[in-house]
Queue: 3 jobs
Job 1
Amino acid sequence: MAEGFSTAAANTVLDAQVTAYPWFKLHTGAPGANGTANAATETTRKNPSFAAASGASKASSADAVWTGVAGSEDYTHWSQWSASSGGSFGGSGTVTANAVSTSDTFTIPAGGIVLTVPVAS
């Protein structure tokens, strides 16, 4: 039997998380405990749309698109922030991506950013 939040509480937490930290930044490795490690050359943060949390999961509901990226690198992670620049770090996760070259467009498709919370069973 797994321990954790009730599904309803998990949904509340996830909706609050994205409300408080709606901006997503790219990284070339794990962002670390404060979200600043392995920052991508591309510094633009995106504010993708999300559907309401359901079943202890919250997924992006629109593409997050970076047009004309600033450098050639592999994006492997994202960090979540309270503001489009500066602000407070709220969390991080991984992204499956291909290498990009300077001036490429990079897209995380709708449903490609997923936040989850463990629930009791």
Job 2
Amino acid sequence: MDRSPLTRATVLAALAAMLGLVLATVGPGGTAAAQTVACAPDSGTACITGTLRTSAGQPAVGVALEVAGPGGEQQVTSGPDGRWSLPVTEAGQYTVTLDEATLPAGETLRDPANNPRTVTVSLGGVAAALFPLGTPTGPAAPSGGATGDGDAPPPATGGEPGLDNTVPGTASGGGVNWDRVAQQASAGLVFGTLLALASVGLSLIFGTTGLSNFAHGEQVSLGGILAYVFTQLVGLPLLVSGAIAVALAAASGYLQDAAIWGPLRKRRVGMTQQLIVTIGLAVTLQYVFQFFFGAGSLRIVRSNPETVALGPILITQQSLISLGIAAAALGGVSYFLVATRVGRATRAVSDNPALAAASGIGVDGIVRMVWTIGAGLAGLGGVLMGLYLNATAWNMGSTLLLLMFAAVTLGGLGTAFGALAGSIVIGLVVELSNLVIPSDMRYAGALVILILVLLFRPQGILGRAERVG
């Protein structure tokens, strides 16, 4: 059947209602395409998915894609919201090719060399094929706040859990303008606040024990994975699942200190040796997560979040709720440290453990409580980050670990409020840097900040300079 533009126009004039139904199931060029329906992964099915947005942040509708792999060849078109999703029943590598001729007028691929893209699919998981739109020289889209389906979270590879191509409403191409700056700044504020949940716990642990915990990122991954398990596998409501995930993450911190760090401290094992143990623990936990849950992304919720417009800023409802919960949790921790007796004891142990012990403070009890609180905050950060990015995965925490250490160092080692301030700065830098550098390099800004702080103000923003020697 002829599907040329002239024929389509003729049919449209004669059979408008019928053509609307046909166009919903037929891709451009007359090729039958899979309908754009939500794909739900299970033990025998995986989903290849993504979202396409124009350089103005609007959904790119009717774009044709072809997926080829072990399961054969299939075609799909993006729906009214720019999303596309395709189920496959065999694991392996799939090649996703976007038909550039079907892009909206004036739109191009920002990186034409990455078309087609290859994704690795595991049954029961979701793999994202990302095709950012915009000028080839335009800045990359931000990672935080993405609302699409994702592959594994950012192995510092330029994709926060590899989710949507852009934050909803964020321009991925064109020049820098105030709307883009506002959008990126809002994404940075949300991302930095969620990052602060993990960074504050990391800073508290360092302050009270002197240990740089390289396994702290896995506490973030644990929170997100537990939320996925109780929501998708057990079937509990999201709120209940999140609460259980945070409680279990906090319990894991208590058990870690009781089984590992407490005995090591009693044996007076040096910090270098303990640090090596944290690295080994991090690697072990990563591959335990991967063994049981696979390398694909894990969506805590499978429904697509609604977008809210706040002036020139578009943000999802999930992001706003996550921001509110994170702010409440950080406010509670702040009150605990400043206005409660145990909180003041915690600050005393952080300042000088020996003097705190001489004052009658139970240092071991405080340290164990800090491990519990720190792990719980990291778990909460993992849950909220998984909702914010719309997916979690086995290595989500490890890919955020550099940002956590950069935030803690910037704010001042061992100072909880410094970690909060540092996280906000890091979040803003990571997202705003997308205005001028490719998204694959967005974490480089955090590394530059880390180096500069160590060179010119090693005590950090809120830290105190100390005399050495």
Job 3
Amino acid sequence: MPANDPLGQIVYIGMAGERRGQGIRGRLRIYLTGKAAVSGLGEAALDRALADPAWLDHMIRRTRTEGPLRAKQWAQAALTRADLELTWTVSPDRVAAAIIEQRLIAAATNQLWNRRR
């Protein structure tokens, strides 16, 4: 975290609406179990991990000693590698959440992990 930025770098902005009553906890559980390797934050973390030769070397050594890993295990390791912190806000409804999300993405001055929509 840069010394002049107490909040750290914002890398991803997204909505986590109510999913079967689980909201953000349900969304994070999907990422942490590796089941979201090809969507949103999970894909962004995996893309960056796969671009890191040192991480790849580590994962190959791990594969040689422990045996092959499943895709979701690679995704879990990539998210762990990212070492992210979470901040959220609550909005009154989906429309308000979408507006907040778009405004935050538009105002972000750094390189977000979000794919452009």
